[in-house]
From TrEMBL:
Annotated protein name in UniProt: Phasin family protein
Species annotation: Archangium minus
Domain of life: Bacteria
Coiled-coil segments: 10-44
Protein keywords: Coiled coil
């Protein structure tokens, strides 16, 4: 009797689980449709905004032209200052990133060379330290 009741409970739980899975699948499908709808609406809105904001018309406005000139000037000024700063760093002795990388490669090469020399000397030292009878 107990096993029969357990079997009934198990089948009931199984049916409920299958029902819940079907509901989840339906919800996922609906969510996917809603997401696709939102994406398409967003694209349409973007196209509409771009149509309303004609970029060429904006560039012809005096305020935009003035901002473009200022941005170009500021960009040139920043480049000049960075060049001066870089030359000062070189004069002071600060290594550039490529110089640091080259130094690291040379250090790695020398470390490997030293390791190979040490590893070949160790067997020689062991042979010399072994007392001869």
């Amino acid at each position: 009797m107990v096993s029969e009741a357990a079997g009934q409970v198990a089948s009931f739980v199984k049916v409920q689980l299958e029902h819940a899975q079907k509901q989840i699948e339906q919800l996922e499908a609906e969510a996917q449709k809603a997401l696709q709808t939102l994406v398409s609406r967003g694209r349409e809105s973007g196209r509409e905004v771009l149509q309303r904001l004609n970029v060429n018309e904006l560039r012809e406005k005096p305020a935009v032209k003035e901002l473009e000139k200022k941005a170009t000037w500021v960009g040139g000024e920043v480049r000049q200052r960075l060049t001066v700063l870089q030359s000062r760093m070189v004069k002071v002795g600060v290594a550039s990133q490529s110089q640091v990388e080259a130094i690291n490669r040379e250090l790695d090469r020398l470390t490997q060379k030293i390791d190979s020399i040490i590893s070949t000397k160790k067997p020689e030292q062991q042979q010399q330290e072994t007392p001869k009878a």
